[in-house]
Amino acid sequence: MFRDVAFGQYYPTGSPVHKLDPRTKLLLTVLFVITIFFIKSYFGFMLTLVVLLAIVIVSRLPIVSVLKSVRGILLIVLISAAINLFVIKDGEVLAHWKIFTITKNGVHTAIKLALRLVLVISGASLLPLTTTPVELADGLEKLMIPLKIIKVPVRDIAMIMSIALRFVPTLFEETQKIMNAQKARGAAIDHGNIFKRIGAMMPVLIPLFVNSFRRADELSFAMDARCYNATDRRTKMKRLKFGWGDAVAALFLLSYTVVILLDRYYFKTVGIDIDLMIFGELL
To answer: Of 211, 217, 219, 201, nearest to 2 (Cα)?
Structure first.
């Protein structure tokens, strides 16, 4: 169950994407996710898929590691698509049975919603896969420097995020071990209706919380023993700096964003042609 979760896991390959400045990757990931919500036509979804595959290839990541992140939200995607499929009543009716009505607009909306969710999660998963938790914390800290003006504890927030990302895979692994131990004792965690499964998870959650608090306590003692404090006097072994690769990556993502916006607001005929080609008519 949890062994296939890719969130928070770093996959080192030494690719050009891995070597980018973490600030660049943070900003471009936010831009990529926001741009996906501006897609209106199937042409935009196809272009986004091509861009995503290009990034995966340049990153030298196995496609399976990216698909694992989608697997975790597959049920949410299906439920959301089904709701839109039956709730939207506009357009030509394709099927009707009692209180359920399926229209062409409902089909298109459900498909586009599913594609949007899958692309958003897949794109966001590339950030932790190509960036270590320490690099993410350093990049976030640098981006939040302006908040110091209003006395926001930027270094503390960055450290909390770094520790959280570091222990996400550990908690997933520990959860899997506890579940296997409970199954060995006869616990029916994967059987029965949803209420029985929720009740069966209590023997898993209690030791998980106990172990989490124990780890947090040990970590706090270790940091205190080393006189750690998040002050401005602390120095860093690796200083962040932008390079030519960051400029190329920014230009690439900005070009993609411009094309999506042009397709949505100006060159609508491009998206219309693709929609007509795939479904035979415009939404």
So the answer is: 201
Determine the structural domain holding residue 160 and report its residue range.
154-229
DSSP per-residue letters across 145-169: GGGGGGT--HHHHHHHHHHHHHHHH
pLDDT at residue 181 in the model:
82
Q: Are residues 221 and 246 in the same domain?
A: no
**Average pLDDT for residues 22-30, to the nearest whole number?**
93
- Burial (0-12, 13-18, 19+ Cβ within 10 Å), 226: exposed
Residue 59 included in any domain: yes
How much is the pLDDT for 233?
A: 66
**Do 131 and 268 share a domain, yes or no?**
yes
Do 265 and 251 have their domain in common?
yes
DSSP one-letter string for 93-151: EEEEETTEEEEHHHHHHHHHHHHHHHHHHHHHHHHHHHS-HHHHHHHHHHHTGGGGGGT
Which pLDDT does position 167 carry in this prediction? 80
Q: What local confidence, expressed as pLDDT, does residue 8 receive?
A: 56
Q: Domain count of the chain?
A: 2
Q: What is the dihedral of CA 71, 75, 79, 85, to 10 degrees?
A: 40
Average pLDDT of the chain to the nearest whole number: 81
pTM above 0.90, yes or no: no
Contact 66, 125 (CB under 8 A): yes
